[in-house]
Amino acid sequence: MAKDRLSGKLAVILHADVAGSTELVQQDKKLAHERIQDTFQRFSNTIEKYQGNVVELRGDALLAEFEHVSDAVSAALSFQGDHTYQISRLKDDLRPTVRVGIAMGEVITADNTVTGAGVVQAQRIEQLADPGGVCVTAAIHEALSKRMPFDLESLGEQVLKGFDDPIRVYRVRLSVGQSVPAPERDKQREASPKKSNWIVAMIVIALVAAGGGYYWFKAQVPQEEPASVERMAYSLPDKPSIAVLPFTNLSDDAQQEYFADGMTEDLITDISKLSDLFVIARNSVFTYKGRAVKVRQVAEELGVRYVMEGSVRRVGNQVRINAQLIDATTGGHIWAERYDGSLDDVFSMQDKITQRIVTALAVTLTDTGQSNQVQGENNNPEAYDVFLRGWESYRRDTPEDYAKAVTYFEKAIELDPDYTRANSALAAVYWNSAWRYWVESFGLSTAQLNEQARIRLRQAMQSPSALTHQIASERAAYFDRKPDKALADAEIAIAMDANDPAGHLAMANALLKANRPEEAVASMQLAMRLDPHYPSSYLTRLGRAQFALGQYQQAATTLERSTGLNPQDDRAFVYLAAAYGFLGRKEEANTAVKQVNILRKGRRWGELSLDDIGFWKWVGDRKSLREGLAIAGVKSGSAWNSRATRTSDGIQVEGPTKIDVEKAKKLHESGVPFIDVSRIFPQGHIPGAYNLIWYRGVRANLGPREFNEIRLMEIIDKWQGMVVYSSGGGGQYEAAQASAYAFEYGFQNVYYFEDGLDKWKAAGYPVETGK
Questions:
Q1: pLDDT tens for residues 321-358?
Q2: Are residues 12 and 139 in the same domain?
Q3: 191 and 332 within one domain
Q4: Which of 133-147 are b and which e, b meaning 16 or more Cβ less than 10 Å from the residue's Cβ?
């Protein structure tokens, strides 16, 4: 086990970092690196002079270990004084200044790398120091001799990430008119083992006598409070369970947040593909981002045994990742390591962290798991960096950010044409945008967005990932109405990433389409266990499955929670009204129907009708949905139906614009889509027209050529306009009804061409035949 290779000890740790290194590199990359390298070379010489040992020297950071507290502080102040003089002689503004933090604590040496509480604490307090300054902990303050020529200014108690209790921090300066002391004599090397032990004991006694002993032991080493299995919100799974908290961005540049988040999410994705692990989804762990939470709290809320936390620091092309794995049930650290490299090494570093988790938790990495880890990924660091920027925008989940994400994903593909993960992400963006009608930020119609989703999905299928098959399943379920294909794609997505709740959501959709609601409930419950801080959409889907099973009380309870979290979800209110109807709660059902109609009105739709539920229905639950809504007071005959009436002057339609043949010809020439609603379309129709047949009432299954909102959105955008007509067979009234339907569902610039093909042919205009 990795645990056996660890060794711990008590040490004085100095951590130094160049302040504002990103800006320096941006000024002149080559010169900045040269001056940073020269800075740390001089600092290393000073550390060696004061009997310290430079443990790591990477990029813009330095880590050193000392035996004597006074030597560590003296080395820091000696260097800062000399460095201030050195950079003052420079004739330009490219002047690297250094911050220093010094702490005392336990360190762990593993594979020639030093980590542990002392290292973490030194890093944390170094961030509190001014450029050119030095900060130390209370333990260092207490251990310094009062005779040392140092002025210590208390900065008060500071809350440091990873430490339960606040830690008092001091700013250290050389006293005015004093010189930095010479190094301490290394008496410990001359002392006998017995005397060495006596010295250590005397230091501890002195700390206790100064009132800092308990504080040192408590605050210097981050002792995690064990999580209680009994208090966990969920039972622990029967296999190792883990939550990866968002890695902290330690870069000077706050704009690097996307990189730290992307590294976290990729790590979650990598380990979630291991079927022997139970991994909490990204959505739930990111609810802790930016919050000072205890490992115990995370474990108890999410129901996991292990918690991983870490940090990412990026300076130019250099990357440093710190990670530690904690057993929450004992509070003990399984391992803690640091990984350094360039952006070119980032994939290798991710693999190393995954392998360490596999080794530490005794997980078997199967051949399938190994192949899944690289599925759809690339080996181009620049393309990867651009992709992460796009993924950050995609995760913000707004129309504007979706448009930004497209730009980044397309750039990633330009850098790496075989980057199928980027194509999958583009398919997801276009699919979700079409489904939500987010068309304005793209300048594309709904139909065009759907077509882009189809194209990107086809390209991503060349090397598909779990995300690829999730989107394919959703499209097959919603638009293609092919339950078997939706089920097949969902099964593949789950096989590729069993810990991704999105795969189980896709499976629940497919199962509902296939009229298997009981299995859909099971899929939803598994998705919710993987993502304990699930959004309201999970509850809506679960409630619909419960409704399809006839579990009206359970459905009502679930849908009440969903509408409470998202009062804009009209579909949840539709099913809630029907559930209330079956439960005899007519007043509440009526209130739910009113809310549905308020939402529909805001979207320029007509009021809910029993003849108008195709958009919400799933195969197998339409009859019960109609019955429940009827009890709730919803009537047959929708608003759009009543807008088309027969009069002595012909058919009158309220809403759509009634046009003659000359206006129809002009609209045809300008490219406005024509929709023919007749069944004899192949015998003759206006050139370029689409055939969507109008059916009276409600059919058991919507066909691919039925006139309804979903089929219309596959052809045109709601803002694009349309002309509705019939090619004959007495279909003028059906065309009037269809045009009113389209108008009520928010399609704008709807025209009703009453005389249709008869007047078109009589005017001598061309006609097409066939499909």
A1: 888 888 899 888 887 777 888 877 777 787 788 777 77
A2: yes
A3: no
A4: bbbbbbbbbbbbeee
48-57: long-range contacts at Cβ-Cβ below 8 A with a sequence spacing of 24 or more?
49/75, 49/78, 49/183, 50/74, 50/75, 50/78, 50/183, 51/183, 51/184, 51/186, 52/14, 55/114, 56/113, 56/114, 56/338, 56/340
Looking at the chain, the number of H-run helices and the number of E-run strands are: 30, 21
CB contact at 8 A, 388 and 259:
yes
What Rg do the C-alpha atoms of the chain give, in angstroms? 34
What single string gives the DSSP state of each residue in 494-538? HHH-TT-HHHHHHHHHHHHHTT-HHHHHHHHHHHHHHSTT--HHH
- Provide the 8-state DSSP code for 286: G
Distances in Å between the Cα of 383 and the Cα atoms of 276, 378, 421 are: 31, 8, 11
Looking at residue 532, its pLDDT comes to 93
Residue 224 CB partners (closer than 8 Å, separation 6+): 164, 294, 295, 296, 326, 328, 331, 332, 333
What are the tokens at 617?
């229905």
102 & 209 share domain: yes
Range of the domain at 311: 241-373
Which secondary-structure segment (H or E) carries 313?
strand 306-315
Residues 347 and 306 in one domain: yes
Distance, in Å, from the CA atom of 35 to the CA atom of 40, rounded to the nearest integer, reads: 9
Q: Quick check: 368 pLDDT over 70?
A: no
Backbone angles phi, psi at 657, to 5 degrees: -90, 125
Is the CB of residue 731 less than 8 Å from the CB of residue 677? yes
Residue 686 vs residue 639, higher pLDDT: 686
Helix (H, G, I), strand (E, B), or coil: what is residue 136? strand
- Residue-wise pLDDT for 578-590, tens only, equals 999 999 999 999 9
Query: Looking at the domain assignment, is residue 458 inside a domain?
Result: no
Q: Which of 539-548, 599-608, 657-666, 745-754 has the lowest mean pLDDT?
A: 599-608
Residues found in the chain? 771
Assign 744 to helix, strand or coil: helix
Read out DSSP for 150-196? Answer: EEEEEEEEE--TT-SS-EEEEEEEEPTT--PPPPPP-GGGTS-HHHH
Quote the pLDDT of residue 571: 85
Residue 232: per-residue pLDDT: 93
* Number of structural domains in the chain: 4
Cross-strand partners of 241: 278
Within a domain: residue 405? no
User: Does 89 map to a domain?
Assistant: yes
Residue 82 lies in a domain: yes
Q: Which CATH number belongs to the domain containing residue 719 in this structure?
A: 3.40.250.10
Secondary structure class of 724 (helix, strand, coil): strand
